[in-house]
Amino acid sequence: xxxxxxNYTTGNDDFTSxxxxxxxxxxxxxxxxxxxxSVKILAYRLGNAGTLTxxxxxxxxxxxxxxxxxxxxxxxxGITTSTSGELIEVTFATPLTVTSGTVYAIVCxxxxxxxxxxxxxxxxxxxxxxxxxxxxSSDGSSWTxxxxxxxxxxxxxxxxxxxxxxxxxxxxxxxNASDSVGSNTLxxxxxxxxxxxxxxxxxxxxxxxxxxxxxxxxxxNLTGNFTLSVWVKLRANPANGVAYQFIDIADNTGNVRAMxxxxxNGGQNQLYFGRVGTAxxxxxxxxxxxxxxxxxxxxxxxxxxxxxxxxxxxxSEIGTATDASGTTATLSANLIRLGRDIGTAFYASTYMxxxxxxxxxxxxxxxxxxxxxxxxxxxxxxxxxxxxMKTWNGVPIEQIKTINGVPIASVKSFNSIT
Length: 418
Description:
This protein has 418 residues and is mainly beta. The chain is built from 1 helix and 33 strands. The two termini are 32 Å apart.
């Protein structure tokens, strides 16, 4: 599902004309690795502006350069004539992959328009957008930089690493667990073991865990959207009345938290996916599931998109709930705990692997990708492709779907890189 990734639509106070003898180019900086599926611009028309062409180009010295990387067209003869404009969208047939921190340009042209029939692209004259600037051209080949910015929105699919703030492979053989993305090392309390797991090693909390857990050395903020995910394979099924807290992100009091828990309620196994604060929200108050057993790895995920919390198991959504007013309104500066809750309770007798925390809600498609038919994907989520290959033709490897037509997950080596 495409989401809004880059955006500048504030301070509209003027316009720039786009017609056959005047092209417009607004540069922008990619804030993450992602694809671009469509671009919206805020615009209106004078007369019949005909067909708009929007494209993305590379930049040089802050101005568009080279040929179109991707382009699309839209009939704008019927858009608004109001000076406040409307957001009009051009969708690209093939998504464009962009790299975080790189400056690109939105190029706008209407070669069939003239001074009496033209597009007016809404402008902010003070040039407050820090990620780029507007440029003008008579034909799209030579560009002149300006001091203002034009209104735009960039939509696309984020990389699986976008807004990933902590990730624990749990590949160690002993001791603390390192954070592959951030700096929230997990302190090993009472010697959580390591053993062969879903991908390489994973944590082994033992078959009768009563005191083993991990707690982060640093704190994490989940004041907005988030995702928590964990792979588990039980060492023992919980007895009646016993709960296993797989992941718990909470303040020091436990009054504010996000968590994933398995509970045996009178012989019925229930999964609790919760967001707790001055009010509490749990998906279905506990989701009845079959016994997870001790032979199969399961992926459990909790997402929050600002309105709803959603629960996933093994790549499929199993429940959703509207967030209660006041729930975790101040979910900030919290510790990550694996294998128990904030107190000394709910110790989990389980194997655990591949734990991730994002400050955005993963989509159902992304969940399916990360489940990977039960095989999982390990950060940086490039499948079983060459582990030492970081980029291909300058593109981060996690953005590559195929190499020479072969799915990346099937590529074991490329040009002798493994």
